[in-house]
Specification:
N-utilizing Substance Protein B Homolog, Chain A, single chain, 4 domains, four-stranded antiparallel sheet, RNA-binding, eight-stranded mixed sheet, alpha/beta
């Protein structure tokens, strides 16, 4: 039996996410190419995969209510296909008969006729109600946190962490944030300075970043500047991190800012921010060194920086124990490994992959990386610490801990960097820090803190 190529491609992607630990946005392009899918078909597969991964918690609750056995006892491959079917039935404009028949065909191809009959019966039960009715049924819980977690398809611990990150904001804002996590992000491009202008990218200029443009749709690789490496795909929040690292004022001797010639990106992989920083460094008469611990990611950085001016070198090295003399750099960016809970729009699998136990090891690494960066920056220089997570343990608490331990460091004010861009409501929980939000700014939930070395 011939299976619809789009559904088969979607199944291969969600299976790679589950079995291989793949990231949705990274695994999809190669699968789409292998199946020869482009244009509307590629867009359909992208929404089908991302939506089913985003909605996994809610969809599993719907399936549990529609099956006469525990979901864990159903073959994992069949569950993957059923989630794809549920997303089509409840959240996409796919006719019910088409969603049902194509999913049953898919299940038959991967698990045989018995499983296909089971899938047919389950999806017919699912199709009896729309999404709102199912949410009302499966999110009927006396505990408001559990109810909100199910309705917005987030793990409970993530809901609690985001509530704390919002600093006591009203529950309505928490719900707005969780719902924003489930909105597919627009494709945002970045023009790499000195290589292409924003006007050449087409699309609509980003509201905050002076380097970005958003596309209404289509394949970004079809934009010549992207295909040639002169531009890239990058969230506006990440563009603002590079902008802040490059433009924050330096402190030097009285009446002078001191040198501003050597910049360092200490956690550079896969190289998107490095590529923007390199262009900004070249415009400022400086040179950028990019460091990435993992060799394969260092190669990605080198590929992103290929042909860029303003690059002094790319090294595969440990940022905690880097091969540089102390006080060698004027600016250092530490875009540290984190839970990624601020980028759930683009990496929906992170909400299911991360665990509360991950926080301790990540926080220890974040502190070590920032300490290393502070040793590498000269007196009067700056370190920009950034995470794509709003979790307090990874943001304000990391910064507060370092300020308490080091008497040669102070917290700078990032407000003068972002205010000229027209941004409002960016203040983090520590004065001078910045916290961006998808529901407020339309960006990933990026955190930034500016640390000055005395």
């Amino acid at each position: 039996m011939r299976v619809d190529p789009a559904r088969l491609a979607a199944y291969e992607a969600v299976r790679a996410v589950r079995v291989d630990g793949a990231y949705t946005n990274l695994v999809l392009p190669s699968i789409l190419r292998r199946h020869g899918l482009s244009g509307r078909d590629a867009g359909f597969v992208t929404e089908l995969v991302s939506g089913s991964v985003r909605g996994q918690g809610l969809y599993d609750a719907v399936l549990t209510a529609s099956i006469d056995r525990p979901l864990r006892k159903v073959e994992a491959a069949v569950v993957d296909a059923l989630r794809l079917g549920v997303h089509q039935l409840l959240a996409m404009r796919v006719p019910p008969h088409a969603a049902l028949s194509t999913t049953v065909d898919l299940v038959r191809s991967i698990s045989g006729p018995g499983a296909a009959g089971f899938a047919n019966a389950v999806l017919r039960r699912v199709a009896q109600h729309d999404l709102d009715a199912w949410i009302t049924q499966v999110a009927d819980d006396a505990d408001p946190t559990r109810r909100l977690a199910t309705a917005t398809s987030h793990p409970i611990w993530v809901v609690n962490e985001l509530r704390q990150s919002l600093g006591g904001a009203a529950e309505e804002e928490l719900e707005a944030l969780l719902r924003a996590d489930n909105e597919p992000p627009r494709v945002t491009l970045v023009a790499r300075p000195g290589r292409v202008t924003r006007d050449e990218l087409g699309g609509e200029p980003t509201p905050w970043s002076p380097y970005g443009a958003t596309l209404a749709g289509g394949d970004p690789a079809a934009v010549p500047a992207v295909a040639e490496g002169r531009a890239g795909v990058q969230d506006e929040g990440s563009q603002l991190v590079a902008h802040a690292a490059a433009t924050a004022s330096l402190d030097g001797a009285p009446g002078a800012a001191g040198p501003d010639r050597t910049w360092l990106d200490l956690c550079a992989g896969p190289g998107g921010k490095s590529a923007l920083l390199a262009g900004l460094a070249d415009a400022a008469g400086a040179r950028l060194v990019a460091v990435e611990k993992q060799v394969h990611r260092a190669r990605l950085v080198a590929r992103n920086l290929d042909g860029a001016a303003g690059v002094a070198g790319v090294l595969a090295a440990d940022g905690v124990r880097p091969p540089f003399r102390p006080a060698s750099f004027d600016r250092v960016l530490v875009d540290a490994p984190c839970t990624g809970l601020g980028a759930l729009r683009r990496r929906p699998e992170a909400r299911w992959r991360r665990r509360p136990d991950d926080l301790l090891q990540l926080v220890l690494l974040q502190r070590a990386l920032v300490n290393s960066a502070l040793d590498l920056v000269r007196p009067g220089g700056v370190v920009l610490y950034a995470t794509c997570s709003p979790v307090v343990a990874e943001t304000a608490e990391v910064v507060s801990s370092l300020l308490a331990q080091r008497d040669d460091v102070s917290l700078g004010d990032l407000t003068p960097v972002l205010e000229p861009l027209g941004m409002t409501r960016v203040e983090g929980s520590l004065p001078g820090t910045v916290q961006l939000w998808p529901h407020r700014h339309g960006t990933d939930a990026m955190f930034m803190a500016l640390l000055r070395r005395h």
